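Lab notebook, design round three. We kept the backbone fixed and only want residue identities now. Task for the bench partner: fill in a sequence for the structure below.
Input structure tokens:
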């Protein structure tokens, strides 16, 4: 015997919320199979025969140094090559006319470009080295770790270069800044972090050659510590299962059935007398959620058997996250 009741959209509530998780990795744990953080060196040769000066880079996957440099330049810095505040482009104000031929443009006016994955609405300052032979270092965190994005202000990197120790944090606006370091004022911008991509790019100081150091020396890798928090959106589903006072007045528990043989010798399922009277109050122990094809999708177990009231509605809230 089955007991079904159809739910409406008023009975279902879906609420999103962000869940964060912190990570901390040091040394060889950074490149472990269950982590997979990679560090690449980028180099700008600025000559016609780039392949001659392009070397392999990466701790897990192999890239070439010229490709790493050009990728970072195109994706994140192409509009900051002439001005650290953003290159400007001429624009014009349009006064529409009755016909397209009647439109009047006033200008030109200069406006900044904002195509390069800005991390906030504040005016950002980015400096990207373009001289021949300059280096950058890119730290790539896999999506399985950062989820939807790295939580701003949670990224930290410590690195001993053999001469000095670098303590780097992000300022929450997409900048990687120095703090508590000898020889570099606190707040000095050392590069940028792109939260939604899990990418950190170092464009100044000795950190620009960190990618090359860690590739050739395990001691350099062991001197790195990286920590951050990831963010992912989880959806909480709540189903309100309401039982009216005149519904579900019977039980599906087989213990209320007396199995016996009838006069023909066939199995005869008969309810015990106590389950057929008006005083019988069934208890609820399990709630199942089905789709329109009657496929069971989820099962909820109550913490203790709950009686169905004969005098008022009974409401059971089923919550689960996806």
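Proposed sequence:
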């Amino acid at each position: 015997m089955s007991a079904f009741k159809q739910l409406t959209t008023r009975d279902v509530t879906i609420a999103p919320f962000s869940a964060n998780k912190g990570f901390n990795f040091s040394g060889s744990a950074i490149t472990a199979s269950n982590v997979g953080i990679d560090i690449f060196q980028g180099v700008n040769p600025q000559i016609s025969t780039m392949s001659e000066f392009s070397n392999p880079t990466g701790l897990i996957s192999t890239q070439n140094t010229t490709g790493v440099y050009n990728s970072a330049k195109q994706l994140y810095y192409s509009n900051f090559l002439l001005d650290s505040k953003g290159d400007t482009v001429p624009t014009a104000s349009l006064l529409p006319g009755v016909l397209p031929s009647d439109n009047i443009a006033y200008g030109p006016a200069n406006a900044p470009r904002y195509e390069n994955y800005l991390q906030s609405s504040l005016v950002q300052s980015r400096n990207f080295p373009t001289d021949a032979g300059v280096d950058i270092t890119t730290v790539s965190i896999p999506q399985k770790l950062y989820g939807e994005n790295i939580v701003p202000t949670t990224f930290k990197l410590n690195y001993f270069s053999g001469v000095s120790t670098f303590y780097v944090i992000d300022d929450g606006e997409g900048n990687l800044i120095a703090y508590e370091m000898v020889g570099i004022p606190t707040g000095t911008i050392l590069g940028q972090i792109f939260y939604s991509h899990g990418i950190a790019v170092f464009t100044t100081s000795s950190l620009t050659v960190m990618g090359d150091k860690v590739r050739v020396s395990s001691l350099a890798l062991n001197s790195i510590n990286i920590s951050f928090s990831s963010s992912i959106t989880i959806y909480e589903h709540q189903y309100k299962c309401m039982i009216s006072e005149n519904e579900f007045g019977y039980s599906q528990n087989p213990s209320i059935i007396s199995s016996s043989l009838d006069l023909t010798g066939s199995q005869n399922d008969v309810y015990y007398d106590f389950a057929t009277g008006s005083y019988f109050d069934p208890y609820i122990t399990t709630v199942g959620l089905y789709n329109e094809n009657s496929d069971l999708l989820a099962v909820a177990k109550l913490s203790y058997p709950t009686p169905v009231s004969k005098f008022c509605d009974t409401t059971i809230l089923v919550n689960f996250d996806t």
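Keep this in mind before ordering anything: The chain has a mean pLDDT of 85.
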